[in-house]
Amino acid sequence: MKDPSRLYRWMLLWTSLVALGFLLAAAVRENLLAEWQQRQRAYRKLLAEKATDARGRELLRNFRIELRQVSVPALGAVDRCVSCHVGIDDPRMTDVPQPYRLHPVEILEHHPVDRYGCTICHQGQGAATNFHDAKAEDAYWDYPLLPRELTQATCMTCHDVSRLPPQDVTLVLEGMRLYEQKSCGSCHKLQGRGGALGPALDNEGLKTKHQLILTNLKPPYTTWRWHQAHFRDPAGIVPGSQMKNPTVTEREALALTAYMLSLRQRDVPESYLAPDKIAQKFRALSPQPQPAEQLYRMYCFACHGDGTYGRWEKTFQRFIPAIRGTLAATATREYLETQIAQGRPGTQMPPWHSQAGGLLPKEITALADYLRASPAARSARDLAARSRPVARGDAARGQMLFLRNCAGCHGVAGVGGVAPELANPVFLRAADDSFLATTIRNGRAATAMPAFQRPDGAGLSDAEIADIIAFLRSLESPSQQTAQAQDKSRAGGSQ
Amino acid sequence: MSDTNDVKPSRLEPPPVTRRSFLSIASLISFLAAMGTALAGVLRLPKPTVEPGPVRRYKVGHPEQFPVGAETLFAEQNFVVRRDAAGVYAISTTCTHLGCAVARTAEGFACPCHGSKFAANGRVLAGPAPRPLPWLEISRAADGQLVVYVDREVPEGTHFQA
User: A12 and B41 in contact by Cβ < 8 A?
Assistant: First the structure.
């Protein structure tokens, strides 16, 4: 007769044996085969090889295989990197493979591991006990281990880049130079100064990959790989991006990436900040006016080029005007200042006054003068000198003329098309009649705006131009017209 | 039990182990072993492999920086490092009473909180301090610098031969 409990005994035996097997395997894996233990065993062999003198033997004798960690509460770091990188402070470990090699000495001298930890500079998952997890590239970790050539970017957490030895931060410095050269400030703000078309970049280095569009990037997904690919082809990484292709080489893309990573507003205790960093932050509170030429290069160049030619911008679907030619010659300084300070609502030209683009009033004046002082503007100035007083026109007639001559580009009722919007309060407020007349009469050299009156008098007559101007004036809102009329009567009364 | 056991076995002979009871015993033993191993694993959990707090281990400099007879105070880390003819040693400057930082005086150390007084070698001279200022372990790092372990005490008079 078969014992019915026999099956259960067999089941108990086998399940217990399997469970025991798993438990023992886990115990061995945890206690004998952990990556850091194998690394430390290998390191002990290295120590034994190098134990040729009393000091070496003492180090070998004191060496214990144990999990090591540096805990820095002030920086929120618990870094176990030193469990495998055991030789970082041993000057003899120069000819050994990683992870046992000596850390560059001059850096450790100023940044003792016990005070700084590792991840404040290198990023990565400090609490990991194997390299794969420490690198944290495919894990849900915000700041994976930086590649060696980009590690310099994190120096700017506590340092002012201009005060560091240039040979140590070559990539970041090159990236900074490229940022100015490529006129990134035309669209992006840094410390409140810059255009408004792109995002501000003050904390770009602390962005996580989850804040970026990764669809068109191949793994591993890291912010620096995204930046590098994005600098090479912005619209290829972010579909529909308005960002101009900065046309950079691989090396330049890497430099720009290093610069982006160096823009980090990490909150570290004051005692960790270098004095020059504090001075830099203090200086940023009260910006000093910069020379106009540099301002133009940084904040205007990306769209306006050198300003002598207008051009068709495909992304914006409109012409970008030439601002250093006829315009600068015919417009008054006040007109240019207003246009820069207020921008041109409805177009991609943002306002640049101190509350918006961050330029100081002095800088805007200097920029206006810089535009007017360009060679193209000087040669066009004699046109402006020939401006004649504008008679009072008839708005109804002007409307017919406008529809026939101007509406094709400037839109019916001046709402703008490929050419700028003319029914624009900022524009109409700033432009005086003689400026409008001169522009219609002579056109805008090197742009799509033609001359509507030839020197021999063919084309629109002065009276017709006056009619068009009267029509343009009628496009202003009634309140503005009243305000202007009051201004005029006040000016007339004082004469 | 089966009915084939006609002959009564002697009391001195152990009962024969049948295949069935062997199975029972083996399964029981392996079950207990598995539970025991699991229990051992669980019991290990409360004891961390590494302490979560910062390791209070400070590199204080190369031995040459501590000439014989000199004393260096590490105010932030709360210990002094001295060197005499016998070697280098470190004494904690945290009062053993309630943990205030003691001040250096002519005769040794004095605690500003409750008036404990210590001799230069850490022994208690006066006040509520229950025991002398501890001497701290010193060793040498791979780069030749001396390392003071604030959490590791050594008996008074232990010198490190630098």
Answer: no
**A470 and A381 in a common domain:** yes
CB contacts < 8 A (A, B): 78
How far does A240 lie from chain B, in Å, by closest CA?
A: 48
Confidence of residue A494 (pLDDT cuts 50, 70, 90): very low
Task: State the Cα–Cα distance between residues B61 and B76, nearest whole angstrom.
Answer: 15
Q: In this structure, is residue A279 part of a structural domain?
A: no
A53: left (phi over 0), alpha (psi -120 to 50) or beta: beta
Q: What is the pLDDT of residue A120?
A: 94
Same domain, A303 and A440: yes
Pairing of strands B103-104, B108-110: antiparallel
pLDDT band per the 50, 70, 90 thresholds, residue A444: confident
Cβ(A146)–Cβ(A122) under 8 Å? yes
Q: Is residue A261 part of a domain?
A: yes
B13-31 confidence digits (pLDDT tens): 777 777 778 888 999 999 9
Coil, strand or helix at B43: helix
Fold of B57-154: Rieske Iron-sulfur Protein (2.102.10)
Structural domain boundaries, residue A204: 155-267
Q: What is the CATH number of the domain that holds A184?
A: 2.60.40.420
Nearest CA in chain A to B60: A112
* Partner residue facing A71 (CB), from B23, B53, B140: B53
Distance CA A220, CA A217 (A): 9
Among the three residues A91, A119, A145, which one is the final residue of a domain in this structure? Answer: A145
Taking the complete model, does pTM exceed 0.90, yes or no?
no
The domain boundary residue, chosen from A112, A127, A145: A145
Kindly calculate the radius of gyration of chain A based on its CA atoms and give it in whole angstroms.
34
Domain tally for chain A? Answer: 3
Listed by number, the residues of chain B in 77-136 with a beta carbon closer than 8 Å to a beta carbon of chain A are: none
Res. A493: pLDDT tops 50: no
Give the span between the Cα atoms of A468 and A407, in whole angstroms.
Answer: 11
What is the predicted pLDDT for the residue at A31? Answer: 85
A216/A301 same-domain check? no
Alpha-carbon gap: B47 to the closest alpha carbon of chain A (Å): 13
What A205-213 contacts at long range (C-beta under 8 Å, 24+ apart), as own/partner pairs, is A205/A153, A205/A154, A205/A156, A205/A260, A205/A261, A205/A262, A205/A263, A205/A264, A206/A143, A206/A264, A206/A265, A206/A266, A208/A142, A208/A143, A209/A142, A210/A142, A213/A237, A213/A238, A213/A239
